[in-house]
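Regression test case RT-17, inverse folding.

Input:
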């Protein structure tokens, strides 16, 4: 991860935008699993208006790599502050369709990670070798989240409502980074 020297304006705007965001609609069909998932377009739709209203934008760039698809996602604020992260994925094959599919996956995952979108991802189950998402955060991750809640004096009920969870223990592994980032940006109880 890289970032501008200061991110206070960006963090404030992102907090407001995330409060206005709705979940990404599961509008795409995965015929292999006979399920629906939130595709890249749905993820962009979930952030477009809240980000525009709060001076935020996202740019995704690709880099050349011999065996990997590399996507850099940059979250920017109108103040000039920014934060960026890279995601590398290996395509199943090296034909254009596989590379394009891998690029779309990387763009979707990078966008969701940097903006806080946490759609359930039915189509990623095959790629990870899982047919069901049975992953909950570890005891160590629970302790890290609890430590951040205590250090920031965060209202646990509001945090769990934001995460759409009944308890810290029920947070999915795929949502752990979003939970940590939101807690680090939190101002605590007023």
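Golden output:
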């Amino acid at each position: 991860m890289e970032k501008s020297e200061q991110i206070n304006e960006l963090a404030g705007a992102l907090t407001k935008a995330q409060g206005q965001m709705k979940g990404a609609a599961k509008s795409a069909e995965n015929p292999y699993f006979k399920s629906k998932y939130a595709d890249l377009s749905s993820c962009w739709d979930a952030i477009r208006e809240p980000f525009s209203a709060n001076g935020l934008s996202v740019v995704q760039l690709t880099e050349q790599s011999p065996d990997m698809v590399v996507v850099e996602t940059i979250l920017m604020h109108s103040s000039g502050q920014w934060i960026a992260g890279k995601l590398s994925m290996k395509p199943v094959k090296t034909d254009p369709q596989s590379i394009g599919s891998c690029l779309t996956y990387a763009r979707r995952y990078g966008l969701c990670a940097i903006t806080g979108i946490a759609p359930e991802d039915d189509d990623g189950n095959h790629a990870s070798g899982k047919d069901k998402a049975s992953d909950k955060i570890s005891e160590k991750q629970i302790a890290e989240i609890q430590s951040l809640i205590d250090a920031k004096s965060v209202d646990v009920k509001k945090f769990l409502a934001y995460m759409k969870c009944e308890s810290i223990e029920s947070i999915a592994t795929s949502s752990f980074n979003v939970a940590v980032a939101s807690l680090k940006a939190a101002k605590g109880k007023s």
